[in-house]
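Researcher: Structure prediction, please.
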Amino acid sequence: MSYRSARRRASPPATFDDQYTSSSIGTLAAAFCVGGALTLYAFNQARNARIGAPAGPADGAPLMRAPLQVVAPVDLIRYAGLWHEQARLPNRFEKDCDGPVTAEYSLRDDGTVEVRNRCEMADGTVDEAIGTARVVPVAGQPGAGRLEVRFAPEWLSWLPMVWGDYWILKLDRDYRVALVGTPNRDFLWVLSRVPQLDSATIEAELEYARTLGFDVDKVVRTGRALPALETTPA
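Model: Predicted structure follows.
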């Protein structure tokens, strides 16, 4: 069933004053232009505020947070190899993973990096995804650990939305433990070279992530963390 609004035809005025009518039209046009400009300005200000202001973390930290900084420089030759996931913020890509998760990075001749992610499913099978990572240049920070990763087919690589942020936020000198996240703070991973990382190290990485504004209370532990070493009195 359709609804139509009724139209009412106004009766023509008895007299028509050209000067009065022209003046009224000019006033209305000016008011329309000024009102439209003010509305557009307010809309742009609101949009810029939404884009520029990051959302506050769940732990009640101040809404205004500094942009995330990445490690610089990062030696991709040393960073390449096998990493074991120890903890992560829940995400839709790994929702079916029920066991160990690994990420393996291999440098290519063209400067990109092959990404090979594997995770163990509940039935014991292994799911694998192969993608490509590329370095995003950062002004004034040569070799900064800011990368983008895609798992979509290569013919879709021209689309910006198929690339996801991969920022190296913390990395030890020996390239043994890494903290990786995204600038919107929705994704976070703790990676290590060993399958089992001690609990104290994981906690230290997560506490650092908390200071950056990540909601680490939602983190899922995915590595089989080893308990801290206990010393017996002599």
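Model: Residues 1-64 have pLDDT under 50 and may be disordered.
Researcher: Thanks, that helps.
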